Amino acid sequence: MLPTKEQLILHLSDKMTNQDIANIYGTTFQKIMHLIKKNGINQKELRKVNTYVVYEHVLNGVVVYIGSGVWYRCRRYTNRGNLEHKKLMQEGKLTYKFLAEFDSEKEARQFEAKLIRKYKKQGLCRFNKRMY
Predict the structure, then answer these.
(1) pTM for the whole structure
(2) Could you tell me which residues come within 8 angstroms of residue 9 by beta carbon, excluding any fewer than 6 positions away?
(3) Cα–Cα distance, 56 to 82 (Å, whole number)
(4) Taking the CA of residue 16 as centre, how many other CA atoms within 13 Å lie in the half-sphere pointing to its CB?
C-alpha cells in the first residue's frame, strides 16, 4: 500500500527522507519521488530545509546523543566518530526526535550545547564527546 497525499505531507513535515518513507510502505525511493511530484508537493518547503535543527538519539528510552545541523543530519551515520553509535544507527536501533528549529546555525549550536551540559550532568548523552 502506498502513502496518501496527506501521509506524504505528514512524513515530509516530520523531516523523513524519501528512503525512510519508502521503507515504511515497502516500496522504492523512486516510487515515493513519483508520488511527491504527482501530488505537487514541495518537499523542501515542508522539511524547512533552510533551518537548523537540534535533535536527540534515543536507545531503549535513554537519550544517548544530542546533535544539531541541517534536517537530514540526524539520520546520517557515515560521519559518526563513535563506532558503537555508528553501528546502532546502521542497524536502525536508535530513534530520533527533533527538539527545536532555528534560523541560524549559531542559535542551534548554543541550544545543543545547553542540552548536552544538562544531560551529561544526568549521566546521559554517552555518545557526545565533550561537555560544552
Answers:
(1) 0.80
(2) 41, 46
(3) 16
(4) 20
Q: How many CB atoms lie within 10 A of CB 118?
A: 14
Show Cβ contacts of residue 28 under 8 Å, excluding neighbours closer than 6 positions. Answer: 22
| Stretch 50-78: mean pLDDT | 91
The 8-class DSSP code of residue 2 comes to P
Which range is least confidently modeled, 3-12, 52-61, 71-80, 91-100? 71-80
For residue 97, give the 3-state DSSP assignment.
Answer: strand
Under a CB-based contact definition with an 8 Å cutoff, are residues 49 and 62 in contact? no
DSSP conformation letters of 15-75: T--HHHHHHHHT--HHHHHHHHHHTT--HHHHHTTTSEEEEEEEETTEEEEEEEESTTGGG
Phi, psi of 76 (to 5 degrees): -80, 125
User: Please, which residues bridge with residue 102 across strands?
Assistant: 52
Spatial separation of the C-alpha atoms in residues 67 and 73, rounded to whole Å = 8
